[in-house]
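Q: What would this complex look like in 3D?
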Amino acid sequence: MLSFVLRRLGTMALTMLCLTMIVFFLINLEPNLKKLAISQTEMHTSAEQLESWLVNHGYRQNFFARYGQWLGIVPKQPVTDPATGKPAQRFSFCNDPVVPTFSGILQGDFGCSTKFKTTVASKLFPALSATGILMLCVLLVMVPVSLLIGILAGMREGSRTDRTLSVASIASTATPEYVSGVIFTVIFASWLGILNGSAASASQGITFYNFTLPVMTLAIYGIGYIARMTRASMVEVMTQQYIRTARLKGLSFGSVVVKHALRNALIAPFTVIMLQFPWLLTGVVIVEVMFRYQGFGYTLVEAAGNNDIDLLLGCSLVSVFIVLITQLISDVGYAFLNPRIRVQ
Amino acid sequence: MQVEYIGAFNIVLGVLARFWPVWVGLAIVMGASFLYKKKLGLYGQLFDSGVGIVGVGICLFWLFTAIFASTVAPFDPLSQVPIMKDALPGAIEPKSGLIYLFGGDKLARDVFSRMVYGSQIVLIIAPAATGFALMVGITLGLPAGYYGGKIDTVLSFLANLVLAFPVILLFYLLVTPGIMETPIPYGLAGIFFLFPIIFFSVLFWTRYKNRPDRLYILLGLTLILGGWVYAGLVFDKDPLKIIHIDPNQLNIFVAVVFASSPGVFRIVRGLVMDIKTRDYVAAAQTRGESPWYIMLWEILPNARGPLIVDACLRIGYTTILLGTLGYFGLGLAPESPDWGTAIKDASRLLRSFIHPALPPTIALMSFVLGLNLLADSLREQSMKD
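A: Here is my prediction, written as structure tokens for the whole assembly.
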């Protein structure tokens, strides 16, 4: 088991290295650098001035040197001030060092956000915790509801309840966040007026009034999928011999479902729920933009829209990390829950 | 000048009447399918269940809407009639006397016509991108599953690499206006569009190796047609000027294929690993058939059931992805009538007007729902056998 986890962690590190390098390459393409230089300098700057801005801020160093600096395995060089010729800070608003130091991801330095004029860490982590709260609420709604629907549908395969719930869950998987968000806003904010169509005020204080719509919108897309998986797993368990034996012993249907079937039927949905995180990530971006909630997704869109290199790199590092770690947890957890599986 | 309105009942009647070519088409196809459903194999079996009928009905509805878009839509999707700005549903356009059935949007365009024309964009890009993703996934998944070993390790690692990318981040990196100045989208397009040609060439080569009369015709056709489409799509140098794709659309296309082919790869690989242990594969190996013959003519036909179901789901998923792209204003032109862009535009103004938001959302939802129902019913029917 330990060697399995260690090997997986090794693959994970390799994947992250490759992915960050790809992201680093794509963000630092020539047109993107141009765009950054234009947005960071005043209007109507000539091509030479743009070029000198890029050189002065260290964007013209060798690709691998810069990637190494970002990673923290190559010392970060301070830039030379063209006026005085002395080493100077790259970005004054981030307290960059003036002597060469190892200062990258491995040292815990995420770099400097050019859009928000602050360090990436001070922007990224509050956003992450805001999104964490949102995710937590979504999971608290999504998991119980979808498991309940799945179990009720899978309990008696082919019954009227099963048909109705299955079609309902198919319908919910056909509703992406930007569709359900619009429909919910129309119904609950425009017509009924009982909920707030914007979650911008949620950063000050979360209330039922401003937080229900984002949570609902985000949960609905996942509910259908998890419910269908739970149903499939439940249907399979209900045809097993031991369920028939329990029924023939004279146990009531309810107690057979709760005591015998449920435990075995819930192993598969665990994996599905864990693997749902990457999908939630895309949903989070849509929902946070739609409801103006200042979280991780909002930050990612801002960073991408303004070509904020370090911030976008930080965002992608976090999201890739979440995807990979949930995959690992789902594999290890599955082996734990299901004694029939043995990892080699 | 005062804009006049018609009542709600007349709007419903008007919408139903505008769709008349679609109803005719639906009636003919559905009627014929009902009559001959015994002879139509898996497709005919779909008509045995209510879910299947609804699924086929919705998909055909949007297919016909896309085909007859110019007849169904009363207005041009881009033309603006200033007086109709933010007009409510049922407003009568004074000049032509035609009706803005679902009202006008903030740029005074007809919401109904835009929804109808939007179906064209979705129904061209989504199935085509899914088709290419299937080609890429199958061509790479077959050897990965069949040979295993090093090929499998490398290809699976690459697939997992792409799958570990959150889709939205991938789009923000790959579908930007800036990237069109670099050779990256064209390079990717050059690689992806090569796969169908390789696939069909190998397909015919393995089958008709010993029958040159057939082989040369089929190979020639593949190479000529494939090369023609390839030249048109990748280099935009179609000698006949028929096949042309906007750089923007090419970029979207490539990004969508890139995002969804690893999923197909994984499914194909899993199916091949399962099927290659069957007796008929062992029989083919004993006969001395070449590995690619076994993969393409023994394993692939037997994997078609799950692949068809997956293709249906995937077209729906691609539609959602296109909507996401439109919603974030990536790739598609800002005035494009596709559903995602329309939802984005309308959702900004939900506080004042809700009518421009509903048609595209319901259209997108119903199309994806139809595909999902179709997939579900297909899965059920193929499990019965």
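A: To summarize the key features: The first helix of chain A runs from residue 2 to 27. The mean pLDDT of chain A is 82.
Q: Very helpful, thank you.
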